[in-house]
Amino acid sequence: ADCPKEGVKMCGRLNVTDCEGVRALMEGLQIRLWPETGPIFSRVITAANTVSIVLENAHGQREMHNALWWLLLEPRISNGAVVDFKPSKYTSFNTRYDKLNVKRSAGYQSFRSMRCVIPAAGFGETEGKGSQARYTDFTVFTQDKPPHAMAMGGLYRIWQYKGQDNTNHYKVSCSVVTLPAHPKMEKYHSKSSPLVLSHNDGSIDTWLDSGLTDTRALAWLLKPKLRHSLVAHPIVRPTQPESVGEDTLLMADN
To answer: Other CB atoms closer than 10 Å to residue 253's CB: what's the count?
Structure first.
């Protein structure tokens, strides 16, 4: 995750449409504190833009914050003073699983004490480059009825500065944790797959538990697993979501 900016990698876009599934997921997370401006909804949210995250504070209460989807930030300076934070020159919208226990890496401390989930209706993947690039959108499939939504496992950081009004301000940043490519998803993205959590196996509660600092208890989450059945929907490109082929159902793992 700590490398100079380059082309979009795994999960460089999220679908967070204002739909029944996403709303139901947010309700199920039992959020106590919401951002004043409300959640961020958009069919396509790309890296370095704002996305809504859910975290658990030191008192065990769930909070939603609107965060910059880029874990590492750097100060924006005006007249010799910090007036805001902006994305760092180091790419960090994703954090690789194999960097989580590497000291001095971007996600090392956050993995221990600042984990979050990002509610989404789906995400997008790219395989290949240039004219050979293939784009696929993924959404949750359930055999009974909606909601269709997923909770992506992520990390967050809080950046503080004193504003021009001499009061304390803060900015929240986040990243999505990525795992090795799941065998069922390799044809759509051969390098990695996102960490997607679920209420069904307790993985959401485990990941959000602010009192859990022994990362050995999280090791079982860092292995590729489809906790939901997914629909792979081939599209022209993110800005042209028209279908260019048949949908494929990827069944959840047992």
So the answer is: 13
How many C-beta neighbours within 10 Å does residue 115 have?
A: 25
Reading the block at residue 128, the tokens are 């290949």
DSSP three-state, residue 130: helix
pLDDT of 147-200, one tens digit each?
A: 579 999 999 999 999 877 788 999 999 999 999 999 999 999 999 999 999 999
Res 7: pLDDT: 30
Q: What is the pLDDT of residue 148?
A: 79
End-to-end CA distance of the chain: 30
Residue in the block written with tokens 């874990």: 71
Both tokens of 250, joined, read 């990827």
Measure the CA–CA gap between 119 and 52, rounded to whole angstroms.
Answer: 7
99: tokens are: 């960097």
Q: pTM, whole model, 2 decimals?
A: 0.93
User: What is the bridge-based pairing of β-strands 73-78 and 81-87?
Assistant: antiparallel
In angstroms, the CA 145 to CA 135 distance is 27
DSSP per-residue letters across 86-125: EE-SEE-SEEEGGGTTSTTSTTHHHHHH-EEEEEESEEEE
Residue 71 near residue 61, CB atoms below 8 Å? no
Q: What is the pLDDT of residue 62?
A: 98
